[in-house]
């Protein structure tokens, strides 16, 4: 699929089903297509953090905050 909304829904469903590896794959595909989407970047950061990859989690949260500086989720995760 090429439609960003469809990609987001696939990733979201994978995450809801507990398939975080698949969710990361689809969120990364989406990030390649829409690199400035703060919601996607925040979700990626959360998944990486849950999988104990704190550096990648922080990277995506900071990138989300850079794109959308009033996002409380990204700001609080990054400790800002």
Can you walk through the features of this model?
This protein is an all-alpha fold. 76% of the residues lie in helices and 0% in strands. It contains 5 helices and no strands. Helix 2 (20-33) packs antiparallel against helix 3 (38-50). The chain starts with a helix and ends with a helix.
Task: Assign the structural class, choosing from mainly alpha, mainly beta, alpha/beta, alpha+beta, or little secondary structure.
Answer: mainly alpha
* Helical run tally: 5
As a whole number of angstroms, the C-alpha radius of gyration is 12 Å
Assembly type: single chain
Count the beta strands: 0
Low-confidence stretches: none
> Overall 3D geometry?
globular
Q: State the order of secondary-structure elements, H for helix, E for strand.
A: HHHHH
**Span from first to last CA?**
36 Å
Mean pLDDT: 84
Which percent range fits the helix content?
Answer: over 70%
Major sheet description: none
Strand content: under 5%
Could you name the key traits of this structure?
single chain, 80 residues, mainly alpha, 0% strand
